[in-house]
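name: query_chain
kind: protein
chains: 1
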Amino acid sequence: MFGHWLRLRPGTRAFLRLKLTAALLAFLFIPDAAAVQHGFDHRLNRDESGIWSRSNQQVLHVALIGAAVGGSLVEGTESRLGLAFWRATEAATIEKASVALLKRGFSRARPREGNDPDLWFQGRGHQSFPSDEVALAAAVVTPFIREYRQDHPAVWTLSLIPAYVGVARMKSQAHWQTDVLASVGIGVALGVLAGQHEQPLFISLTGGGAFVGLRYRW
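structure:
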């Protein structure tokens, strides 16, 4: 079995590691044995104090978007780091569009909207599945993990970002456990797909061969 793990493609290993991280952290916050008897999905006790505050979650979300876009413009596509930033931006942009459609299609009720994980297709206003913030965090960090995982193994610590976001959103009673795991999968998949082509999709669509970053223009 271990040999089979080693034979997996790097992108697949990244996908599995991030999903396992999120799953393990989610289990740490199971409130009691009775909750498990009701199934994997259960509502956590609401806690938006300290590091779990909603303002911290929102700041991190905006910071991830700003870092991806800002890094893309500064670095351009002529460096390894620049390509990672552009791929993160590409993955995040597609994530925003796809998750918006999925939320509308599945219209799952949030934990704070009834404490019933089986309330799907509830109509407008119900947006538990999937989590935009979790998917975006995974989409942004995945290109960097994929690019630098062999040279700089410490880059795997970036996986703690979507893990934190996932736990924080569950503590806000905004998402179920399956919402979080599915969202990590969506984000990782988009991050991996963004690295499948030599040039970022945005640059290819414009017909340009490269984007010279502001850092080089200065």
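note: Residues 1-6, 24-37 have pLDDT under 50 and may be disordered.
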